[in-house]
Amino acid sequence: MTIISPQTEQQQPSSNTNNDSNSNKDNSSNDANNKQAARGALHGIKVLDLSRVLAGPSCTQILADLGAEVIKVERPRIGDETRHWAPPAFSDDTSAYYATINRNKKSLTVDITTPAGQTIIKKIAADSDIVVENFKVGGLQKYGLDYDSLKQTNPQLIYASLTGFGLTGPDAKRPGYDYIIQGLSGLMSITGPSDGEPYKVGVAVVDLFAGLQLTIGIQAALLARQHTGRGQQVDVALFDSALALLANVGMNHLASGEVPPRLGNQHPNIVPYQVFLAAGEQHFILACGNDQQFAKLCQVLDVNWQQDSRFTTNPARVVNRELLCGWLVDKFAQQSRAHWLEVLQQVGIPSGAIHNVSEALAMPQTQAREMVIDFTAQGSPVRALGNPIKLSESPVTYRSPPPSLSEHTDSTLAALGYDSEMIAKLKADGIV
């Protein structure tokens, strides 16, 4: 894990004392490469972040972790509404929700509904590589902050829009919310117990998946710009992303014409591949993915079901799912979860316990992969989930904790050419 502060990032003096010019060049090259790696893969990329809540900010945090400079624009005095989505919160009143997706960013407060505020945004956009926004379709046009307006002064600009239903289509003007999109997309129809009501996923998975899709689109546009010299608009929708999340279940419908049922913890195409209950009321997951593994399972259970034509192949087991799984329920209830996990793992059958969040974050593997990061050394009380992207040459960096509201307003405006008197007037007028 790399936690650095911009103030401590300094050029190290060379220890080379010989006169070998080639050696000096090699050392200089290595120093430059090491410094670039410490800054991140996207160092030098400037992002104007007009997004808020979860989906858009999750995208810009990934870009920031990868080294991009991200200027997050928030409403004066109020900020991103997730700042107030507490409890829980850290001791400095930063809500846990806001801290989830806003590290490594600068906070600039601007009232974009005012001409003076729009001027500030336009100045930043003129010098930015990327704009990220998640306003309703057409919501920024009246302020002159839409793609067609901003690209006039910055044709290399990549303008990333994340909306509920996309920029086109009959539902384009509708607002998008993760929960509602989970319902409309069919995702909830396949989530939850077979004999109960549909369930949403426990986190806003559509928001987060759409944020990933937006990140991929932005990086593709950056690569395309290297060849064309031009920017472009990236259009990602929550609804489209949720449909893509249907994956093999959606394809099952396209292939068969049948409406996929809700199967609870069972797999639609593989049996046995679900949750079972061991003695002591402890749940575990069995993921028996092929016929060879099923034969090993029968060996562990001291049965010869693999020789029964009803269970010999996976398609047969899918047809006879209820019968087979009923027998397995009886078998697994006879021993503890620890026993079953040990014997299953010994013969190479995928299986695992179902942890609560505390247990998951305490796993040695979690620590080894640096998936919990700590900003306390920088004077912040925040601990956060780490970035899962691991790059060998230009790793992600954790440079700063989630910013306080308007923390970087003065420095950002000063960099744009505003002097102290101008900044004071903007504050007095409620513009920033």
Provide an overview of this structure:
This protein has 17 helices and eleven strands. The protein starts with 20 loop residues before the first helix and ends with a helix. It has a six-stranded parallel sheet with strand order 3-2-1-4-5-6, sandwiched between helices. Strands 7-8-9 form a three-stranded antiparallel sheet, covered by helices on one side. The chain is an alpha/beta fold. It has two domains: 234 residues, 3-Layer(aba) Sandwich (Rossmann fold); 82 residues, formyl-coa transferase, domain 3, CATH 3.30.1540.10.
How much is the radius of gyration in Å?
26 Å
- As for the number of domains, it is 2
Structural class: alpha/beta
The CATH topology label of the largest domain is Rossmann fold
Q: State the shape.
A: elongated
Could you give the distance between the termini? 35 Å
Number of helices: 17
CATH superfamily caption of the largest domain: Crotonobetainyl-coa:carnitine coa-transferase, domain 1
Q: Which spans have pLDDT < 50 for at least 5 consecutive residues? A: 5-19
Q: What's the helical proportion of residues?
A: 25-40%
Major sheet: size, sense and barrel closure?
6 strands, parallel
What's the β-strand tally? Answer: 11
CATH architecture of the largest domain: 3-Layer(aba) Sandwich
Overall pLDDT metric: 91
Features:
432 residues; alpha/beta; Rossmann fold; formyl-coa transferase, domain 3; 11 strands; 12% strand
Summarize this entry quickly:
It contains 17 helices and eleven strands. Helices cover 38% and strands 12% of the residues.
